[in-house]
Specification:
alpha/beta; Lyase, Ornithine Decarboxylase, Chain A, domain 1; TIM Barrel; Methane Monooxygenase Hydroxylase, Chain G, domain 1; 4 domains; ten-stranded mixed β-sheet; 22 helices; binds pyridoxal-5'-phosphate
Length: 635
């Protein structure tokens, strides 16, 4: 076996750059998760997964590391506290967790619990989210900010909740919402707490840039803000407006875009104050990005700034503008979702199979007697025998042309099945040889890197991309993916990852590599009788809730884990993934009805002697068990 170190594995997967010191490789070559960055304590993922399987919790398993979640909340707040101190900022910072990022009750409850000492609040964007937040906020003083389109029912619900003591701010996104608020204020006499969302002309970057700018879907234009102020003054509601909101998009990759938005937002704040609006808060929305590929660049899966730089800019820019205008500095709110929850979730699953080429017949002996082969196949044999590093490029192009020729000749009836199989075999052999030669050329010229792709094998993983990492499919988002074991061995297979949906789109062909995005994932050869697990990292934000039921693959099993000094880890919560019965129910099938229908058919089958009574009851039992089983694949 070629010598290989765990450091080399860390490099190949760029682990140290995206891992935020929360993930490492131990001496055994296994991935470890640390409760906090660089902590000497860790949980070995392979051991954890083995233990979970012993508890009959099957892969795919979504692992939620609660210490990491707690740590992210603490570190964002600490960074802001430091920036406030460094800039002598005279007001406070608060995070409002946007629950759209993951609304799972257990997750939001944990966030509320960990964030209590930082007075964390919740941001909602719809009526269902509002209802969830009200239920979570009951009796604990958790404040709520309401964004998104609002109808009468939405606003009325907020008003009555406000009346009984909930701290809820309604952010006016549209003028028609303000009309409804005024009308309901008149009807109920309940005074609302209001915010105004402004459409900044500053835009973000990357995939969500259209959330900002003048064409943005949400927010009031400056002219509409003037109208809103007049309307609010007319109806004696101007003193209810406490918050100015803006959001230029999620995952803003460039710090200068954030700075521009801050300056514009702060300028609007001071001007509104001068017009007599009694604002107290600037809410800068979301946008604090995550460095998914570890490149620290403005590429859309990365960010060219740190959380420290972000916090410093927020505090500095707002203070600067307020000081210049002689206006008191506001309390600052950020609705940082992605940056809070991306890191704490890891999906682990098993590789079911690969499409390796070693199941091909062995044509080696034919190489010595080529006279009976077709001229096309013979030319491929010649290339296979003679190829060296000097003829690489030419031989590669000839090989591509000859394999195409072989297919055309076969279709026209000039090549038999055996010769076509031989051509296929030679093609894979030649590509392998080219790859071995390319590996020795350092650095590999860019045009030769594509050779590698011809070697790519598909590893079939037990998961649904559409359910577990939908953004990889929908917007080409990169997530770090890597094996969780054997990292002391060279990963010498070039692979793509296919899921188990019947969809050719259910394949990942873009990965985080040493030098940025790569089109293949280095993996190890699968050993017989040994499970091979891969982990999908930084998937805590948006993925779970955006996931869909393609092919009726449902929610995965999810497990909440905390680090424990005595026992290494403690399982806090197990949330069972969907059973087949549940995903069928989403599409209006009823498990009992299915069983009844099949039972009726079986009785007919028994009566007509198509099936024995024993077989019939075996089938019914099997169907019953299947309906109650996990939607993913077992043994
Ligand atoms: C209004 C609002 N606030 C906050 C967020 C969360 O953004 P992020 O996850 O980038 O922090 C979003 C998401 O796009 C949003 O629309």
């Amino acid at each position: 076996m070629e010598r290989w170190s765990t450091n080399e594995s860390a490099k190949v997967y760029n682990l140290n750059n995206w891992g935020s010191d929360l993930f490492s490789i131990n001496k055994k070559g296994n991935i470890c998760v640390h409760p906090s960055p660089n902590s000497k304590y860790s949980i070995e993922l392979t051991t954890l997964v083995d233990d979970l399987i012993k508890r009959k919790i099957k892969p795919p398993i979504l692992l939620r590391f609660m210490n990491i979640l707690e740590g992210r909340i603490a570190s964002i707040n600490k960074v802001f506290k430091n920036a406030i101190q460094a800039n002598n900022y005279p007001a406070n910072y608060q995070t409002f967790y946007p629950i759209k990022v993951n609304q799972q009750r257990q997750v939001v409850e944990a966030i509320a619990h960990f964030g209590k000492k930082y007075k964390i609040g919740l941001e909602v964007g719809s009526k269902p989210e509002l209802v969830a937040a009200i239920s979570l906020a009951s009796g604990n003083g958790l404040a709520i900010i309401c964004n998104g389109y609002k109808d009468t029912e939405y606003i009325e619900t907020v008003l009555y909740a406000t009346k009984i003591g909930y701290d809820i701010t309604i952010v006016i996104e549209k003028l028609f919402e303000l009309e409804k608020i005024i009308e309901l204020y008149g009807k109920t006499g309940i005074t609302p707490k209001l915010g105004i969302r402004v459409k900044l002309s500053s835009k973000g970057t990357g995939k969500w840039a259209t959330s900002g700018g003048e064409d943005a879907k949400f927010g009031l234009r400056i002219s509409e803000i003037i109208t809103a102020i007049d309307m609010l003054k007319k109806h004696d509601l101007i003193d209810c407006v406490k918050l100015l909101h803006s959001h230029i998009g999620s995952q803003v990759t460039k710090i200068d875009k954030i700075k521009n938005a801050l300056i514009e937002g702060a300028r609007i704040y001071v001007e509104m104050k001068k017009l007599g609006v009694n604002l107290e808060y600037i809410d800068i929305g979301g946008g604090l990005g995550v460095d998914y590929d570890g490149s620290k660049s403005s590429y859309f899966s990365s960010v060219n700034y740190s959380v420290e730089e972000y916090a410093n800019d927020v505090i500095y820019q707002i203070k600067n503008i307020c000081d210049e205008a002689g206006v008191a500095c506001p309390n600052i709110i950020s609705e940082s979702g992605r940056a809070t929850v991306a890191h704490y979730s890891v999906l682990v699953t098993n590789i079911l199979n690969t499409n390796t080429q070693n199941q091909m017949p062995d044509f080696e002996s034919i190489l010595t007697q080529t006279d009976k082969l077709s001229p096309t196949v013979r030319k491929l044999v010649d290339i296979y025998k003679s190829i060296d590093r000097h003829s690489l490029r030419e031989d590669y192009h000839d090989t591509l042309q000859l394999i195409q020729e072989a297919v055309s000749l076969f279709n026209l009836g000039y090549l038999n099945l055996n010769d076509r199989a031989m051509a296929e075999w030679l093609y894979s052999k030649i590509i392998k040889k080219i790859n071995n030669l390319v590996e020795k050329i350092k650095p590999v010229p860019e045009e030769l890197q594509n050779f590698k792709l011809s070697m790519r094998q598909t590893y079939f993983a037990n998961f649904s991309l559409f359910q577990s990492i939908p953004d990889s499919w929908a917007i080409d988002q990169l997530f770090p993916i890597m094996p969780i074991q054997r990292l002391g061995e060279k990963p010498d297979v070039i692979a793509s990852i296919a899921d188990i949906t019947c969809d050719s789109d259910g394949e990942i062909t873009s990965f985080v590599g040493e030098n940025g995005r790569t089109k293949f994932l280095p993996l190890h050869k699968i050993r017989k009788d040994e499970e091979y697990y891969i982990g999908f990292f930084l998937i805590g934000a948006y993925q779970e809730i955006l996931g869909d039921l393609h092919n009726l693959f449902g929610d995965t099993n999810a497990v909440h884990i905390t680090f424990n000094k005595k026992t290494n880890y403690k399982i806090d919560t197990v949330i069972s993934g969907d059973a087949i019965m549940q995903t069928l129910k989403y599409v209006q099938y009823d498990g009992n009805e299915i069983l009844k229908n099949v039972r009726d058919n079986l009785e007919n089958g028994v009566a007509s002697k198509k099936i024995s009574i024993e077989e019939s009851s075996h089938f019914l039992e099997l169907l019953d068990k299947t309906i109650q089983a996990y939607t993913y694949l077992g043994e």
